[in-house]
Amino acid sequence: DGGITQSPKYLFRKEGQNVTLSCEQNLNHDAMYWYRQDPGQGLRLIYYSQIVNDFQKGDIAEGYSVSREKKESFPLTVTSAQKNPTAFYLCASSRGLGSSYNEQFFGPGTRLTVL
Amino acid sequence: SQELEQSPQSLIVQEGKNLTINCTSSKTLYGLYWYKQKYGEGLIFLMMLQKGGEEKSHEKITAKLDEKKQQSSLHITASQPSHAGIYLCGADAGTSYGKLTFGQGTILTVHP
Q1: Hey, is A92 helix, strand or coil?
Q2: Which residues 6+ apart lie within 8 Å of A65 measured at CB?
Q3: Distance in angstroms (rounded) separating the CA atoms of residues A70 and A53
Q4: A29-88 pLDDT per residue, tens
Q5: Do residues B84 and B11 touch, judged by C-beta distance below 8 A?
Q6: Taking the CA of residue A1 as centre, how many other CA atoms within 13 Å lie in the half-sphere pointing to its CB?
């Protein structure tokens, strides 16, 4: 079955540590996205990528980094520079540039807690 | 930048009642997407609207996009406990393909 997977489901991190969240899709989508969700604030875009080896900052990129070496994979690193990293992180993908239908398909999410 | 405002922020209804959730944009909508989310899970795509005046239905959920393409509504008929969750609208402002801006979400509780 086609879809998006995120791992792990729950992640605990000590302050000062970097941590990487995994996102994989087998939908053959060109575009991928990372969002952060906090209670009462909806989804905020961290980074997005419309093609392999290219990505752009979203609205809240500070303290985060990404890579897009393969079409299927878009890992997110939460660095120690992120001041308030405890949140629910969602990865999504869409058909991308040139498509008339840009609905995004979401993974199950990773809940990150900084201890 | 485009902003989306959802109302109400939360809604509690008795099973069997009808309800409406609104999504208002600060700019013209080129595409409006409705999603549903269970707490702690990913978003599930419900419907997409693109044309002014467009209306789509799936089972007991109907979504409309107004003629001016700056407001959308999501209507649930005869609500059931399975409808409970967070409903989010997402907008494509037409400036960057695939990039969506989301509203803050509406929390729906349905009491049996």
Answers
A1: strand
A2: A76, A77, A79
A3: 8
A4: 999 999 999 987 789 999 999 999 999 999 999 999 999 999 999 999 999 888 899 999
A5: no
A6: 3
How many residues in chain A?
115
**Cβ contact, residue pair A97, B90, below 8 Å:** no
- In whole angstroms, what is the distance from residue B70 CA to residue A30 CA? 28
Extract the tokens encoding A83.
Answer: 């001041």
Task: Please provide the average confidence, as pLDDT, over all residues in chain B.
Answer: 91
B93: pLDDT confidence band, cut at 50, 70 and 90? low
Give the best residue of B24, B41, B43, B101 to mutate against chain A (max A CB count within 10 A).
B43
For residue A89, list its beta bridge partners: A36, A110
Q: From B88, which residue of chain A is nearest by alpha-carbon distance? A: A42
Residue B53 near residue B71, CB atoms below 8 Å: no
Cβ within 8 Å of residue B60, ≥6 positions away: B76, B77, B78, B79, B80, B83
